[in-house]
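assembly run, all chains below
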Amino acid sequence: MIHTEIAAFVLASIGIYLAIAYWTRTARVEDFYVAGRSIKPHVSGAATAAAWMSAASFISMAGVIAILGYDAVPFLIGWTGGYVLLALLIAPYLRKYGKYTIPEFVEDRYYDPKMRLLGVIIVIMIAFIYALGQFIGIGIALSMTLGIPVVMGIWLTVIVIMIYTTLGGMKSVTYVEVAQYCILIIAYLVALFTASYFLKGYIFPHVQAGELLNEIVNKEAQFGEKTMIDPFVNKVAGGQGVLNWVFTALILMIGTVGMPHIMVKYYLVPSARDARYSVGWALIFIALLYLSASVYAIIGRYLIINQLLGTPVEQAQQIAWVKTMKELGMLKLNDINGNGILDSLAEIGIRKDAIVMGMPMMANLPWFIVALVITGGFAAALSTSGALLLTMTVSLTRDIYKRFVNPNVSEAREVWIARVATVIIASTVAFLASLLYQQGGVIAVIVGWAYSVSVSSLVPLFVLGIWTRVGKKAMIAGAIVGLAVCYTYLLGNFFKIIPPILGLGQIAGGGVFGGIACFVTALIVQAITKEEPPEHVVALLDRLKLPEKPRRF
Amino acid sequence: MGDLGLSKDERETIKRFWPYVRNVTLALLIAWSIFAVFIHLLAMFDWWRSIKILNYPLHWLVGTQVSIIAYIIIIFTYAYLISKKEEEVVR
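ok done. output:
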């Protein structure tokens, strides 16, 4: 690996982000929190796509499909299908409501300042866990590719994000995210199209790679392996089978609706109409990567199977990319039956992150494509981490400091407090990530929990809050019971105290049981208390149903 | 009702607009559920998996490509229908 050249690519991309942030810097509260509500739908869509596609999407998605085959498809449909729910049930209403933060809506809708605190706790719970996973992932990736210590990778990331978020808040973050989206999607598609052209002469691999998939399946069947297209045969997120497959996808979809760093994006556009189209644009931009991930996975798996399966161990160890990946700790060749030949997939231990980062090397592509892919992965991790940090900052500043500590704070001071909060939160996340990076595997599992927590708390708060007249007592009871059931299952299953119920793993089980508990409890308590929201809340809900006057530009 | 109370005209507008929004939302949620859940259950059946389009087994093609494209179509259909109705009602 050519560290200097790769470092030059990464540093050049950082230069671009900082230049954009400086150019869009601001000291206005409305710019800092909601980018002046002036972001066009397609720009907001690109920014949402960048905030959404973390290192997990960019680096791991294709790898997971390459390793688990069809059983990893819940991640593809789960992380895209949620946008339909977001568009139909939440986004336009959030924009019509027109405030700055998620907890602000929760307080107004449930007419109690304590509900705002509950909103802050849930938002920070989800965003903090998610951000921690991002920083650890990026620290490890930078360490492997640039040859720097993991902790240095984490702090380098944090410093870059702190600079561009403190300069202009949501306004800077939005435009930087658009640049990050461009870099990450170009990197991904250039690597995919180049590899498929060099490998098989394909011009449009999405249409042509079916032939490769058949070659893979035939070779795997020949060696008596489960094939890439076999459904419901592998363990996914701790569970197995059709039910686990379906519920993992559903929980990821419903959890998407309650991801706070995505919900806030619908405050940024000028109108509810723009919010509706903005979700569509976001999904188009996300789909460019997600529709390509399975093709990337086919090419990655083909390269591995073709070059390693059935090959003598000695010969395999002479392959250049095998040597490099073994040095980086991404690949282990283990001749389990001792016959000197890699005749089973179990003997080829490859990390899921290695497929995307390593595919250009496996396909013998020029070094600058390897550098481009790593720069793209860095952009993906930075964009999500920045969005999460800003969400936490805004919650702390607006929902705690301005609401409860100093309601009369001046606009200039509020922006400065937000900047200080960004530095404190970013440093705290980086410090914890530096301590926990050796537990990277555990953290990756915990990141998946964010979806279950979202389904068990934030999603019902919004869906019931917008679509029904449920009262605050019912919702408090629902959220508490939902979170309790969710965490009981997550922790119980994680520590092997609770076995998988109905074959459901942690993400699926925590979300299904927690979500059902929350909805059912809220509805039962509502039926018992028959609490009617005050008139101003009923009027607010009615007002969300009003059509908007079309804007004239 | 205070400042937020709706006028008589606004209530009439809601009567003309909201049932349409609710019905479109429900219809599209049903369409979504097909591509989110039900179509993937067909992967349990050999006959479904044996169908090939562009050399891809159908369950693979539906899971990795068709569903995502269907989601995009559903969102834009919703945005178009509601925005059109909104213009019609507000005009």
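Strands of chain B lie at 52-53, 56-57.

The mean pLDDT of chain B is 92.

not gonna interpret more than that til we talk
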